[in-house]
Amino acid sequence: MAKLPGLGPRSARRAVLHLIKKRDILLSPLADSLFTVAQTARECVTCGNIGTMDQCDVCADPRRAIGQICVVEDVSDLWAMERAAVFKGRYHVLGGVLSALDGVGPEELRIPNLVSRVGDENITEVILALNATVDGQTTAHYIADQLEDMGVSVTSLAQGVPIGGELDYLDDGTITAALNARKAV
Amino acid sequence: MAKLPGLGPRSARRAVLHLIKKRDILLSPLADSLFTVAQTARECVTCGNIGTMDQCDVCADPRRAIGQICVVEDVSDLWAMERAAVFKGRYHVLGGVLSALDGVGPEELRIPNLVSRVGDENITEVILALNATVDGQTTAHYIADQLEDMGVSVTSLAQGVPIGGELDYLDDGTITAALNARKAV
Question: For the Toprim domain, which residue ranges apply (chains A, B) (predicted)?
Fold first, then answer.
């Protein structure tokens, strides 16, 4: 239990003791659920999202075949996009970002799959929703290069002031990006 | 001392005691500095920035007369822009934002001054660097309306993912804004 992210040895002990005390109403159902998830959870063969079937719910939904693919780093980012409920197309989960330091190359990620999806499916736009970190942006440029001659429009999320953001609390990089990308009112 | 922002009664007592203990090396110089600032600090007649002369350092610098005015809410925002060292023009400090609730109208702010500056000085672009809050954006729209027929281009800071930002930690509004303002790679 202590190996879970966010749980140290002490909180793991507390959690385990709590589970044992409430073994009927908490421990058994949790064990059942974990067993079920271990049996059924699998990666979507198309996009890499997690689901219970070969194709995830998003890929299987015919209403989302609108020719847009949103490329995200991880399933947690896909969930963040879904929480915002603003994107109506399908996703492609890379499973990480390129990193020379950690020895992660294009083959370790799901980049070749992405390129073949763009060729096979009727895709008009690839939206790179990668994190605004150095590795994320490197990966974005690599993918943009790969897709350059495929006749598909490649876009990325806007960078700038977050909603509710106050200038005084922003870092210099964000202010610079927001000023450089300023747009007519 | 306890009336200063960020200082409660307890930390004010600690600070005062510290000052009294070090009265030679800390209290007297601080008292002198505060006295000097009280005597000399004044608002720039042009932009509202704080300086020691009628015109602040930014307005007095001829190299910054490049026809761009950056409109900010407060002097702290002007300092944030200067820290980023990316804007080379002059500023206009509103001194607040429009707020029906607090009874702040255009006359309480420095909006009429801004309009007359745009007419008088050789201004080509007004950049609205207001906070991405509701009041800030209301004020931005009001100013854009006021400047509509003056032949000046009105722009605002880009909204989107802040630099270093990870999707998983962003709010829905920012993800929506970033997706809607996405741009070609």
Answer: 67-162
A135–B contact, CB cutoff 8 A: no
Instruction: Check CB contact under 8 Å for B163 and A86.
Output: no
Domain of A152, in residue numbers: 62-156
Q: How many domains does chain A have?
A: 1
For helices A172-180 and B75-84, the axis angle rounded to 10 degrees is 90
B38 lies in some domain: no
User: Is B3 part of a structural domain of the chain?
Assistant: no
Closest by CA to A71, choosing from A43, A51, A95, is A95
**Chain A environment of B179 (Cβ under 8 Å):** 81, 84, 86-87, 127, 129, 157
Decide if B149 touches A, using CB distance below 8 A. no
Tell me which DSSP letter residue A162 carries.
Answer: P
CATH of the domain at B103: 3.40.1360.10
User: With contacts defined as CB-CB under 8 Å, which chain A residues touch B162?
Assistant: 132, 159-162, 165, 170-171, 174
Question: Mean pLDDT, to the nearest integer, of A78-88?
Answer: 93
> Is B147 exposed, middle or buried (CB count within 10 Å of its CB: 0-12, 13-18, 19+)?
buried
Q: Among partner residues A164, A168, A181, which is closest to B158 by beta-carbon distance?
A: A181
- Residue A163: its pLDDT value, please? 92
Q: What is the mean pLDDT of each run of 10 residues along chain B (185 residues)?
A: 90 94 92 93 93 92 92 94 93 92 88 91 93 91 91 93 90 92 87
E-strand stretches of chain A: 42-43, 50-51, 68-72, 90-93, 125-128, 153-156, 183-184
Interface test mutation site (partner A, options B149, B168, B176, max chain A beta carbons within 10 A): B168
Q: How far apart are CA A91 and CA A81, in angstroms?
A: 10
Q: Answer yes or no: is B46 within a domain.
A: no
- What pLDDT is recorded for position B1? 86
